């Protein structure tokens, strides 16, 4: 290959990595506040008794691996309440936050028997789960 082709290649490679950097900057998770995510991670220990979010294990509740934008009531083999199975909900960050703030108020008939969380705690846990997508 003639030598003069190389600088062009190098410039193309540099341009490509700049483009990649620019694309990464627009990823939504970079907008998450790391302190809030860290707080959410700590608060998630309260959920972890019932919800695995690493190995897709079924505990008292269904696993929450990739729960963001998952359809509600869809983990196969998990015995959901009728309310959850028929809810037709998708776990957008907004729906997730509202559900854990007030499970029975948001989805009457759910089997998830916990008191609601404070709004700022529900938001932190939601950001933590978002950061794991
Ligand atoms: C005492 C056990 C328990 C705790 C603690 C608990 N959950 Fe649940 N969760 C459940 C059960 C049981 C269900 C299934 C509800 C149903 O079928 O109505 C559920 C369902 C869910 C779902 C729906 C999942 C799906 O597949 O549709 C989400 C999301 C969820 N919980 C998030 C959380 C978060 C976040 C926390 C911590 C703030 C939490 N849960 C704490 C027991 C628990």
Summarize the structure.
The protein has 133 residues and is mainly α. It has helices spanning 5-25, 34-43, 45-48, 82-85, 93-101, 103-106, 119-131. Residues 1-22 form the signal peptide.
Search tags:
single chain; 133 residues; mainly alpha; Cytochrome Bc1 Complex, Chain D, domain 2; 7 helices; binds heme C; metal-binding; Cyt_c-like_dom
Describe the structure.
The chain is mostly helical and 133 residues long. It has one domain (30-131): Cytochrome c-like domain (Cytochrome Bc1 Complex, Chain D, domain 2). 49% of the residues lie in helices and 0% in strands. The longest helix is centred in the N-terminal third of the chain and has 21 residues, at 5-25. Bound molecules: heme C.
What is the element layout, followed by pairings?
Layout: H1 5-25, H2 34-43, H3 45-48, H4 82-85, H5 93-101, H6 103-106, H7 119-131
In total, the number of strands is: 0
Proportion in β-strands: under 5%
- Provide the CATH superfamily: Cytochrome c-like domain
State the helix count. 7
